[in-house]
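[recover] target loaded
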């Protein structure tokens, strides 16, 4: 007899997997955006920390942060019934993305593409993929 309830572990594991995958994808998006930015060496030269050490810290922070968000979303999926969960994730995710686009504007093409792409990707992952993985048997 196991002390773990599969109905609780499945959503948490799904959130953990999705969060880690989002962390890796977001890291790749940020690396591509920074590499395509015309003045990134000059912008990062003002740091007193070496660029490789700074990069390692950012990558770890993104991976840990997105994994934590995934675990929280998995825990919320356990508590909040399904239609309300998906609608809430869509409203919050797309609302934050739309608010960013309204306040910050879209003239900074690289930054806007990165943020809007990240917001839409996270919204789809948590509103669509998380419930599928959490109920998969």
């Amino acid at each position: 007899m196991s002390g773990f309830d599969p109905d609780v572990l499945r959503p948490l594991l799904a959130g953990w997997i999705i969060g880690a995958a989002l962390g890796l994808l977001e890291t790749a998006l940020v690396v591509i955006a920074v590499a395509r930015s015309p003045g990134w060496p000059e912008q990062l030269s003002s740091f007193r920390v070496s660029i490789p050490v700074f990069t390692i810290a950012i990558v770890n922070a993104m991976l840990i942060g997105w994994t934590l968000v995934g675990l929280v979303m998995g825990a919320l999926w356990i508590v909040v019934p399904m239609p309300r969960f998906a609608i809430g994730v869509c409203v919050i995710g797309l609302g934050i993305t739309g608010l960013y686009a309204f306040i910050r504007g879209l003239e900074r093409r690289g930054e806007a593409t990165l943020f809007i792409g990240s917001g839409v990707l996270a919204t789809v992952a948590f509103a669509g993929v998380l419930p599928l993985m959490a109920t998969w048997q």
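[recover] notes: The mean pLDDT is 86.
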